Amino acid sequence: MSFPQPYAGYPDAKYHKLTLAADGVLLLSFNRPPVNAWIDPKWQELTRILRTARDDGDVCAIVVAGEGRCFTAGLDLNEQSLAKIVADQPDAARKALVMRSHIRDFQEAISWFEYVEKPVIAAAHGVAYGLAIDIMSACDIRYATKTTKFSIKEVDAGLAADIGTLQRFPKIVGNDSLARELCFSAREFDSAEAREIGFLSKVVDGGREEVVDAAVKTASIIASKAPVAVRGTKIFLLHSRDHTVEEGLRYTTALNSALLQSDDMPVAMLAVMQKKTPKFAKL
């Protein structure tokens, strides 16, 4: 089978370009020119795509990128629907409850980068503003080009970030003072600083093609591993982020009591002894 090829699992995407970039690797590209700005139908479609990918045994890892000029410039402020959503509500309490439900659904959509339970690599180029940080923070691995520019932009739009950056980004960078500075000021920071603070693990020379290629190579390595082991590892890492060491160990013990009974482990061990490439059943 040759790659890349169209992804048959979700052929009707309107706001995303979906391709199998390598064996087991789904390339999910934001595709809403000119700057991949977000509107409600876009994140609603994203949820459906990631649900499909979660249950598709042909997808072992996901690379997230942007088509065209940039990764994403964030929300499309000209098309936001909150005013329309609450317009028909008669009082402040009802407006608040409708808005609360809308925000929660949006948060869930971005959290699907975690819920998909398969490793997700963000490959950013151009600008990565606002919602881009929410998205990248929900991904497992983050790459960018040397010239990518980042900003936690929400305060410049008159709101506090509410889709995940304020919850995830400080835990990723491990520098509370700097995280607060970037969130309060909305100042732009470059790839060198993003890597220095631990937000990025790799900075790539070149443009979109080069950073996507680098991400696909890493995703291909991950996709070649035992799928039960990889999925379990992501589940355990996410659980440990928000729990104590002891809670994490107990959770791992409970779930691994089942996962260790998979055929993947003897297949992997035999391949090592025979110095062959293992072939795992789909998950």
Automatic annotation (TrEMBL):
Molecular functions (GO terms): delta(3,5)-delta(2,4)-dienoyl-CoA isomerase activity
InterPro entries: ClpP/crotonase-like_dom_sf, Ech1-like, Enoyl-CoA_hydra/iso, Enoyl-CoA_hydra_C
Pfam families xref list: ECH_1
Keywords: Fatty acid metabolism, Isomerase, Lipid metabolism
Domain of life: Eukaryota
Presence of keyword Glycoprotein: no
Gene Ontology biological process: fatty acid beta-oxidation
CDD domains to which the protein is assigned, alphabetical: crotonase-like
Pathway per the UniProt entry: Lipid metabolism; fatty acid beta-oxidation
GO cellular component terms attached to this protein's record: mitochondrion
PANTHER family: DELTA(3,5)-DELTA(2,4)-DIENOYL-COA ISOMERASE, MITOCHONDRIAL, ENOYL-COA HYDRATASE
Similarity comment: family membership: Belongs to the enoyl-CoA hydratase/isomerase family.
Protein name in the entry: Uncharacterized protein
